[in-house]
Backbone:
């Protein structure tokens, strides 16, 4: 069951990463078109605004992918000197801290979106974008990151209670340069 859930989260995050990459590619094309058109005196307008919204969405949604691909930066000076059980324990502490921060940020993002909706806020730009649109994408990325990290906490705890320290370490352990070389 744990392996199935882990695989489902990783597969979902890979699909999300692909979609985020496509959106980012579309944004790059929009910016290039804006630059080229400006050379002939034409402007699409709003490319910089849209790219800012995309970057906020990419950042919030991309963190879950980085989490499941073990790509987050970690200083593992002590971790590498420990046996598997010790590494798994440090990994558990790290994922609990990460899940706590992700949950706190997601929780704190909601009041921002709530005020935007209540006030009917729009961007002070030519596009007059209803700000609830990019903020909903941003908040949903943080919520998914919090959910993904909390599920990994639970799965790590289950694996450690089963005394499967190798699997627990592989689930949320950092990929260090030393481990990658071996």
Residues:
């Amino acid at each position: 069951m744990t392996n199935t859930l882990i695989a489902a989260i990783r597969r979902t995050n890979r699909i999300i990463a692909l979609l985020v990459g496509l959106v980012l590619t579309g944004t790059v094309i929009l910016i290039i078109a804006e630059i080229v058109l400006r050379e002939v005196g034409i402007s699409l307008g709003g490319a910089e605004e849209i790219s800012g919204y995309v970057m906020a969405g990419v950042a919030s949604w991309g963190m879950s992918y980085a989490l499941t691909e073990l790509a987050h930066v970690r200083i593992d000076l002590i971790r590498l000197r420990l046996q598997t059980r010790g590494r798994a324990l440090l990994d558990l502490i790290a994922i609990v801290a990460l899940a706590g921060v992700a949950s706190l940020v997601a929780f704190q993002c909601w009041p921002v979106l709530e005020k935007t909706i209540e006030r009917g806020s729009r961007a002070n730009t030519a596009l007059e974008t209803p700000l609830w649109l990019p903020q909903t994408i941003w908040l949903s990325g943080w919520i998914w990151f919090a959910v993904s990290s909390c599920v990994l906490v639970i799965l790590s705890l289950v694996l450690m209670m089963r005394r499967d320290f190798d699997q627990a370490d592989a689930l949320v352990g950092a990929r260090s340069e030393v481990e990658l070389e071996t």
Summary: The chain has one domain: 1-179. Helices lie at 2-39, 47-68, 84-119, 132-161, 165-172, 177-181. Residues 92 and 157 are 8 Å apart (CA to CA). The radius of gyration is 20 Å.
